[in-house]
Specification:
114 residues, mainly beta
C-alpha cells in the first residue's frame, strides 16, 4: 500500500475490541472483535487471522477468518476458502468458495426492479 487511494482502516491481529464498532470507511480486520460492527455504506474484510463474534451490518463483507454472528449486507458477501461462518446471512449476492464452512441460513434480498 503505497498511496492511500481509498480510505481503509486496519485492525491488526494483536488487537482485541469488545463493544460497538462503527465507521464510515472500509475496514480490514485481522484481530478479535466481540459485540457489533456497523459499516452501513462500506465494506468489512475479516482477514485470515480475524476472529469475530458480532452481528455485522455493512455494504459488503469478505470473510477469510472466523465469524460468529449474523451478517446483513446491502450488496455482497464473499466467503473465501478459509472462512468459518456460524450465523445467518442476508445479502443481494453471495459467493462461497470451495472449502468454506457455513452454518446458518442464507437469504438473498431482491433489488427493486423498477
Amino acid at each position: 500500500m503505497s498511496t492511500p487511494a481509498s480510505s481503509l482502516a486496519q485492525i491488526g491481529k494483536s488487537v482485541v475490541i469488545k463493544g460497538e464498532l462503527s465507521g464510515s470507511e472500509d475496514l480490514y480486520l485481522d484481530g478479535q472483535v466481540e459485540g457489533s460492527i456497523a459499516l452501513k455504506g462500506n465494506s468489512l474484510t475479516v482477514g485470515p487471522n480475524g476472529q469475530v463474534k458480532a452481528s455485522v451490518d455493512a455494504k459488503g463483507v469478505v470473510v477469510q477468518g472466523k465469524l460468529e454472528g449474523n451478517i446483513q449486507a446491502s450488496d455482497r458477501v464473499d466467503l473465501r476458502k478459509s472462512a468459518i461462518v456460524t450465523g445467518d446471512i442476508s445479502a443481494q449476492r453471495i459467493s462461497i468458495e470451495e472449502g468454506a464452512f457455513l452454518k446458518g441460513k442464507v437469504e438473498i434480498q431482491r433489488t427493486d426492479a423498477k
